[in-house]
Amino acid sequence: MVGLVNNMKNKIVDLIAAHVDGLSKEDIAALIEIPPKPELGDFAFPCFRLAKTMRKAPQMIAADIKEAIGDVDFLEEIQVQGAYINFFINKQIFVKSMLNEAFADNFGSSTVGNGQTICIDYSSPNVAKNFHVGHLRTTIIGNSLYKIYSKLGYDVVRINHLGDWGTQFGKLIVAYKNWGSEEAVKKDGIAELMRLYVKFHDEANNNPKLNDEARAWFAKMEKGDEEALSIWQWFKDISLIEYKRTYDLLGVDFDFYLGESFYRDKTDNVVKMLTDANLLTESEGAKIVDLEKYGMAPCLILKNDGSTIYATRDLAAIFYRKATHNFVKCLYVTGQEQKLHFAQVFKVVELCGNEWAKDQLVHIPYGLVSLEGAKLSTRSGNIIYAEDILLEAIDKIKTIIEEKNPDLPDKDETAKKIGVGAVLFNDLYNQRIKDVSFKWEKLLNFDGETGPYVQYTHARCSSILRKIDCTPSSEVDYSLISDEESMALLKEISRFPKVIADAADKYEPSIVARFAVDVAQSFNKFYNANRINVEDEAVKNARLSLVYITKKTIKDAMALLGIECPEQM
Ligand code: ARG
Q1: Which of 96, 257, 387, 454 has a 20 to 30 Å separation from 68 between CA atoms?
Q2: 239 alpha carbon to ligand 1 midpoint, in Å?
Q3: Cβ within 8 Å of residue 371, ≥6 positions away
Q4: Which residues pair with 285 in a beta bridge?
């Protein structure tokens, strides 16, 4: 574990460990608390658990430990309050070390992940369908996890597992041939493909023969028929152009676009492996893996016509990724409705004799997007495109800027950073499993717990630093930083390394988003209490150093969410 706070904590663990019996250093570290109020010190150690082994009242134990520790250079004071020992870090040492740590380029970074690879499978929309709000969530969460793990030194492989294979493409080809045209698809792209798909289902209701035709076209695709594949490839190219527009707006990228189709020649191997492991059983002509023992429905591997399904291709993908990247973790960011699917697939991998499946394959579900109360523009057929949401957010911010700050340079670029940032922040601020609601007034509010609020605080820091002409430095008179608000701000910032580590452990970008708001709020309290541009150079420099690390930390925290912070707004 990294960071100054942790160093201090470790030092305190060592001090306590030298004077108690029956508790390991790990036990002690786990017991140490960060007190809720500054009057109770910076760290507190409760002595209740020692009462048994040391056969004394916890209050007495606390007093004895304090006595035994005596005077220590980095501690201002040790107090006993009831069964607690409260440690007060020497303020000047804390300020000095904290400033040095936060000024460093790599503040918050770590090397724990060095030499280890994590695959993240996210976004993964279904070709020929629109990129909707649900896919927006996986894209935003996956991208943030990528940034968080990279910060911790992992090699992260970003994979877009496009839904680009399956019988639906047979249907689409039939629909295109019967009711479509090249011009219409060229002109309307995905919207036209979706229209054709709906049309197919309407027509097939009265004419079931169409389903046979569709199956036949998909069978042709599976056999490598040139015509079938070229139409399919064209639909895919058209879809990707539209998806990439959304990715560009979001600033999201991938190392690999390897959709389901990539695994079509790799599923035979999966079937062979499952057969060799004696896992396949026959059920109504289909091949399945029975998972009853594990309280799950069977995992379907081959349909009764011998074709593979989503799960078969996911199995192939896991073995391919393990062989290619030798990941220590492979994460899947999708909605909760796929919980069973992943539980089944992971179990099947494990049953093939791969113990690693138990902790290396992780499904990361998230809640729904509720559009209740939101006025979002829709394209024909009331369909909401993620792209439109982002464009609308940018547009609304542009209007606000025109009203409030018409002379701002780079208005378009800034509106994009704030508008897109607001949508991302709204998505990441609550635990990912919670539903996300979409209310423009709320998420674009410059005063709430929002992206624009955090960005605005960052821009305020930038403006202070711009106006006062001097180079911020960590070499200041540390004794000049001691008021309550300054200390609270420093303490808040000092949490950054731990925040990143926790967010990674729990796959929870919201921990970073909340931290960004906490720092912004602490800064605004500090700023209300302290004038920065004062006569006294030493005081000015000391305060500027806090402004500087606030700006830097907010910018870095927001970057972990995929959000850029403009210098001015
Ligand atoms: N295409 C799927 C969907 O839109 C998501 C794919 C997730 N990744 C995976 N390896 N199954 O629901």
Answers
A1: 96
A2: 16
A3: 133, 384, 437, 438
A4: none
Provide the pLDDT for residue 5: 73
The rounded percent of the chain whose pLDDT value lies above 90 is 89
Does residue 510's CB lie within 6 angstroms of at least one atom of ligand 1? no
Residue of 425, 428, 423 lying closest to 440 (CA atoms):
423
pLDDT digits (tens, 9 = 90+) for 220-244: 999 999 999 999 999 999 999 999 9
Q: Look at residues 111, 428, 118, 446 and name the one whose alpha carbon lies nearest to residue 255.
A: 118
167-199 confidence digits (pLDDT tens): 899 999 999 999 999 999 999 999 999 999 999
Q: Is 267 exposed, middle or buried (0-12, 13-18, 19+ CB in 10 A)?
A: buried
23 Ramachandran zone, left/alpha/beta (phi>0; psi -120 to 50): beta
- Probe target for ligand 1 pocket from 164, 169, 236, 334, with the most ligand atoms within 8 Å of CB: 334
Q: What pTM value is reported for the model?
A: 0.94
Instruction: Looking at the CA of residue 317, tell me the nearest atom of ligand 1.
Output: 10
Q: Which of 461, 449, 425 is nearest to 547 (CA)?
A: 461
At 329 the pLDDT is 98
Q: What are phi and psi of 43, to 5 degrees?
A: -140, 150
CA distance 243 to 562: 18
| Closest residue CA from atom 6 of ligand 1 | 124
Taking the centre of ligand 1 as the mean of its atom positions, its distance from the CA of residue 263, in whole angstroms, is: 14
Q: Using alpha carbons only, how large is the chain's radius of gyration in Å? A: 29
163 lines ligand 1 (CB under 6 A): yes
